[in-house]
Amino acid sequence: MASSVRAGPRLLGALAGEELGRLPRDLRAELEAALAAETPGRGPLVPFRLLRRLAGALREAGSPLYLHELLEGSEIYLPEVEKPPRNPELVARLEKIKAKLANEEYKRITRNINCQELNQYGTLADLGRHVRSMKAVVITIFNFIVTVVAAFACTYLGSQYIFTETAARVLSAVIVASVVGLAELYVMVRTMEGELGGL
Questions:
Q1: Are the beta carbons of 5 and 43 closer than 8 angstroms?
Q2: Which domain of life is it from (predicted)?
């Protein structure tokens, strides 16, 4: 925060001349001491409190000089703010938190990536799923064939009591096996349609 002014040429010249001759001695001595002090930069520093006293003294003395005229060419001095050193424990904790957040972000970004899925043949879970679906298809086909063959055999053997000729027995067995096969296909289609609808 600013607390002083870097004196300009007007203020320095006024103090050297007779313009400020009617000031009290202690104020004049303080001003001379402030202006004579060595400061790094372009000019000496004069504190605000001293400038307030100077403005009051000029008013009391009835001087034709005003403070704003004396401060022409002067600048407000803003000292550099020194940053306090950072606490090493705090820095270490912040680094840990940053690393943890970066790790969580990385896991969030890569959560749907599975290196096993990069294999062109798939994973073991995919293989098991394919084997189960293939097993279900093989069992269904085997069940269909067994049912049709069993219907044919039962009709062929059972029709010997009705028909004496072999051609009639085979024809009746084929008709019954076809009807059973169609019924089995209808049931399979409805079952598959229900499974696909559930997906």
A1: no
A2: Eukaryota
Please name the residues in contact with 77: beta carbons below 8 A apart, sequence gap of 6 or more: 2, 3, 4, 5, 6, 41, 45
Any domain includes 189: yes
Measured distance CA(23)–CA(34) in Å, rounded = 15
* Domain end position, chosen among 77, 105, 133: 77
User: Nearest-CA neighbor of 60 among 33, 25, 24, 11?
Assistant: 24
As for how many domains the chain has, the answer is 2
Whether residue 100 lies inside any domain: the answer is: no
With respect to residue 105, please indicate whether it lies within any of the assigned structural domains.
no
Q: Domain range holding 151?
A: 119-198
Q: Which residue has the higher pLDDT, 97 or 18?
A: 97
Does residue 89 lie in a domain region? no
pLDDT value at residue 120: 59
pLDDT tops 60 at residue 84: yes
Phi first, then psi: give them for residue 83, nearest 5 degrees: -80, 135
* CA neighbor of 21 nearest in space, from 61, 77, 71: 61
Global pTM?
0.39
Instruction: From 71, 58, 66, 70, select the one nearest 23 (Cα to Cα).
Output: 58
Is residue 127 left, alpha or beta, with left meaning phi > 0 and alpha meaning psi from -120 to 50?
Answer: alpha
